[in-house]
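Q: Sequence in, structure out?
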Amino acid sequence: MIKRFAAMVLCVSVCCSVLLIPASGQGTGQSAAPFTLKDLSGNAYSLSDYSGKKPVLLFFWTTWCPYCLTKLRLMNTEYEGLEKSGVALLAVNAGERRSSVERLVRNYGIRYTVLVDESSSATDDYRVIGVPTFVLIDREGRIRYKGNEYPESAIEELTGRQE
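A: Exactly. Output:
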């Protein structure tokens, strides 16, 4: 019982401290790092596929982060509106095994594209130091937002979409 409580306290304190750390590294205005990752069906997705076509919202997350799980549910409700506004949503799991990600996606009924970054290469390229992290990339491939909260106002500014 004490071990379980200690583990829970540690998990909550780590997740809380992660939320308080601002995302750093590639900032707004910079060019987004290129990547190619596979979804749970093995289909490859490259950021370059969207260049010049539509903005992309990257959502970096993990299965063990309670804040990420809350945001996964939020993204399920926001997904349709993002698509209607012409914004592609790519949820990038940061460094976990495909089997863990598949189980969670199935249990949560996730409807949007989930990419698996098992080697953490894209996560490292975007210098994600805490999850959840959102990165909004415009049509020209420039980062317009990077942070730990859903970028509602940045999306509205980019697309003219009113929530």
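Residues 3-25 have pLDDT under 50 and may be disordered.
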